What we know:
The protein is an alpha/beta fold.
Amino acid sequence: MKSIDFGSFILEFESHFIKLILKDGAHFDGEKFENSYDLKSAIYGDKKIGVLIERTDPNASYSFDPLILLNNLEILEKQVLWVVVVSEKALDYGHLEFVKQMTKLKCMAVSTCEEAKQWIAENF
């Protein structure tokens, strides 16, 4: 597994998905999406992959720019198979609901990485 720490977030590259870990105070905006997409393309090419977003600190605060979904919808739907959020925070589930409404991606919210791995194994 290759991992890159960008300061405000970490990307871990698994065989068929990318794990995104946001740190406290991070804001995942269009520029961070572009950097992540460039790395995805370099590592996986055009292969469709999953995205696992993990909240490792229940007290951390971070945000996503919803324009990422609007401005990159075609890329997301061509390059991403699914999105799984690992968290116990209702706010994170709300963000995932927005992804569900704005895209055709399969989405799942779970509270542990073990649940995420089980869902991924059963569905992909």
